[in-house]
């Protein structure tokens, strides 16, 4: 009975109304409404039990303290970011602080060719600084490469990869190959045998190489072009220089196809826009796999689209996950956040600021044939190079060291995709 009376008194004290227990009243405590330091039970707003402590003067009870107040922060950190976007997301380091720069620990070791090292470098404005030298194996650490081309028009989407056109991406299945003439409004598209339904696919290194040229031989036109990782000995190792701390430039830098856009966390590089018009002009499809990548004999396996199947770092505030870093050192995040909402207010480079990540980019949709629109930060070259030199983003191969069937420019180096624009001597 006395316990009940004490609880009732506590409730009345909170409302400013006193009560007394006649059996305990003395002249010494007639001016105090509670015993200093004493705790009494109270009910929290969520219905759970809490406690109130009498203040030092004994004139009243302090605010009700609830266990849920202490757990809210921890629960929030542990529970956000657990979505189905990518089961490989890393929730232990789910946000980068502004100005923190590239984090080597975010990369999967299986995609790297050795440790990430700090080296001296020169930014495009001539500033001497420190960069990360990142060497990659040339193959993804977290998924298989392919498939690319289906073999028959009866095949389903699991037999092929994807293709992009006018901002959309399509599954390369049998019906897609069968419908190319209608899709492009040109009856010259005929990638399959009308009698058997079998699809024309480049199935040797030599055919892959010949079909990837701007001047595709007539016998290799109307083919689905499939180049395999084994054609480049399992990958083309490359080295990239990325500023340790990104520096915002006074002007943006165009992505002109001379080098990669950046690196995915699985060790594969993001390439600039694919030359779609040149590819389809020969009635060919240079198929991507479902992760948005394909193999080039000079540059190896690389991505042209972010499809959500690669390593990513979840963010504690439900922001889109980190999927890689641009060559200027700023992070590249997925297009949509944990709730499927696309970021708004992006600038011409597809970048924006926020208080958690500072400046960062958001990848475009798979059908847009791009990752970001331009570079907002300064690019890096090796120390001693002039800012006008091409970015030192890959090791140039001597033609003597290049895989069989690889074309090289007249300068005796294989430093990227060979096209009529950059290799007029050979093309």
Topology at a glance:
Layout: H1 2-14, E1 39-43, E2 49-53, E3 65-66, H2 67-79, E4 117-123, E5 128-136, E6 162-165, E7 168-171, H3 174-178, H4 180-184, H5 205-211, E8 223-225, E9 238-243, E10 248-254, E11 262-264, E12 269-270, H6 276-280, E13 284-286, E14 293-296, E15 300-303, E16 322-326, E17 331-333, E18 351-354, E19 358-362, E20 374-377, E21 380-382, E22 397-398, E23 413-414
Parallel strand pairs: 8-13, 12-15, 17-19
Antiparallel strand pairs: 1-2, 2-3, 4-5, 4-21, 5-9, 6-7, 10-20, 11-12, 11-16, 14-15, 16-17, 18-19, 22-23
Describe what you observe in this structure.
The chain is an alpha+beta fold and 427 residues long. Among the domains are: 67 residues, no CATH class; 156 residues, no CATH class. Helix content is 11%, strand content 22%. The chain has an 8-stranded mixed β-sheet, with no helix packed on it. A 4-stranded antiparallel β-sheet has the order 9-5-4-21, with no helix packed on it. The chain is elongated and about 100 Å long.
Overview in brief:
This protein has six helices and 23 strands. It is of the alpha+beta class and about 425 residues long.
State mean pLDDT (0 to 100 scale).
80
The largest sheet is: 8 strands, mixed
Low confidence ranges: 1-30, 68-92, 386-422
- Rg over alpha carbons: 31 Å
The general outline is elongated
Structural class: alpha+beta
What is the succession of H and E elements? HEEEHEEEEHHHEEEEEHEEEEEEEEEEE
Count, helices: 6
Proportion of beta-strand residues: 15-25%
Please tally the β strands and state the result. Answer: 23
Helix content: 10-25%
Distance between the termini: 99 Å
* Widest β-sheet, arrangement of strands: 14-15-12-11-16-17-19-18
